[in-house]
Amino acid sequence: MNCSNLLGEPLEIYPNSNVSFSNDLGFRLGVLADYTVSKNFSISPKAELSLNNSTINLTQDDGSVSEFDVMPISLEFMTHFIVKKNNKKLKPYLTLGPNFKIPISIENDVPKTTLPTKSFLAFDFGIGMNKSYTYFNLSPEIIYSFGLMNIDQNAVVNSLNFHNISLVFKFKG
Predict the structure, then answer these.
(1) Per residue in 71-130, pLDDT tens?
(2) Of 114, 93, 91, nearest to 103 (Cα)?
(3) Beta-sheet strands, E only, within the chain
(4) Smallest Cα–Cα separation from 118: which of 101, 132, 130?
(5) pLDDT tens-digit profile of 115-152?
(6) Handedness of CA 147, 150, 152, 156 (dihedral sign)
(7) Are 103 and 76 in contact (CB under 8 A)?
(8) pLDDT value of position 57
């Protein structure tokens, strides 16, 4: 599960417009690997399909509203570096690393317009813990992804950055 956090400022070419952002819950599903480097350090490459739920609302002086979906679907490729703390029952850890996000365009019949966005780099950081069970390990994580680049290709919003926070449940067999 993820929640988008769009940040940006209205452009000067729309002086009589009110720009607002709507950020809501989304969903993601992916695969990962876990390479142990040492007892307290590992590298975890991941690939995820992310369904995001964020929009830009542009309200003109005449009351007309234009609504743009922002990156409704994306592929994310990340390499997280994991620093673990030794603990008998719960094994807490910190995770951080780069995240490359690629928007995917899909035609639909919804009256909203999808804002053209470009691929961009983000930096992820978060915390998690690993709990071992008889047949699998469960690792819940909270990860914040900080977008480092402007993703808007049409100049609707000045320096539009896409951030999100995710609650991830990793299962390892």
Answers:
(1) 889 999 999 999 998 777 778 999 999 999 999 876 654 455 777 788 899 999 999 998
(2) 114
(3) 2-10, 18-32, 35-38, 41-59, 65-70, 73-84, 90-103, 113-115, 120-132, 137-147, 157-172
(4) 101
(5) 778 889 999 999 999 888 889 888 899 999 999 888 87
(6) positive
(7) no
(8) 81
Rounded-to-integer distance, Cα 95 and Cα 87, Å = 17
| Residue type present at position 89 | K
Rounded to two decimals, the pTM is 0.84
Residue 76: DSSP 8-state: E
Beta bridge partners of 129: 92
> Residue 155 — φ and ψ, nearest 5°?
55, 45
CA dihedral 66→4→102→148, nearest 10 degrees, is 100
The answer to whether the CB of 147 falls within 8 A of the CB of 157 is no
**At which residue do the structure tokens 């896409």 appear?**
162
Distance of alpha carbon 8 from alpha carbon 4, whole angstroms: 13
- What local confidence, expressed as pLDDT, does residue 17 receive? 64
Determine phi and psi for 34, rounding to 5 degrees. -140, 110
The single-letter DSSP state of residue 152 is B
